[in-house]
Amino acid sequence: MTTERTGAYAQAVVALAEGEGALDAVGNELRTIASAVDASDDLRQRLTDIHLPVGQRLKFVESDVLQAAHPVTRSALAMIIAADRANELTAIADAVSEKAAELRNREVAEVYVAAPLDEPRQRALIEALERTTGKRLDVQVHVDPTVVGGVRAKIGDTVIDGSVARRLQDLRTRVGR
Fold first, then answer.
1. Cut 0.85: pTM above it
2. Within 10 A of 119 (CB to CB), how many other CB atoms are there?
3. Mean local confidence (pLDDT), 94-102
């Protein structure tokens, strides 16, 4: 959920990334980092613990893990951590993706699949979603084993759920009647 504050941080990141011609790279890297932080209780704790000095929390930005990241990504991450907003990293990354998509006259599609997709399958999925919605999409693919199989996509307020998990739930509902 984008608040006025997360939107302002996202706008600052987008401005920096656009200025460096790296909006796609920075947006993708921030989403990847946000996902990694969400998946690690230890990392999230180290980045959001206000009792740790800021210098300690910023060591993550200087770590080997982020050495290959674009300098704007590292600068944006440093800004977010130094401002004690690391707990809003996912919301800021989502807002950056949305603002980047808007600049390209596109919409963000969050797609959940059970297993990673190779490039041809991902391209086919994007084409199918664009045909179905009539929109140009910036697709973010997430691996989520709870999907079981198939695809669940969220585009704005629209959810397209062709997942095996939903079909199993429908079957359970029908059998339970």
1. no
2. 7
3. 92
Write the single-letter amino acid at 46.
Answer: R
Residue with tokens 């990354």, as numbered in its chain = 93
Which are the contacts of 74, defined by CB distance < 8 A and separation ≥ 6? 61, 62, 66
Residue 20 exposed, middle or buried by CB count within 10 Å (0-12, 13-18, 19+): middle
What are the residues whose beta carbons fall under 8 Å from the beta carbon of 174, sequence distance 6 or more? Answer: none
Query: What angle is formed at CA 96 by the lines to CA 30 and CA 89, rounded to 5 degrees?
Result: 50
Query: What count of other Cβ atoms lies within 10 Å of the Cβ of residue 107?
Result: 18
- Residues 125 and 111: beta-carbon distance below 8 Å: yes
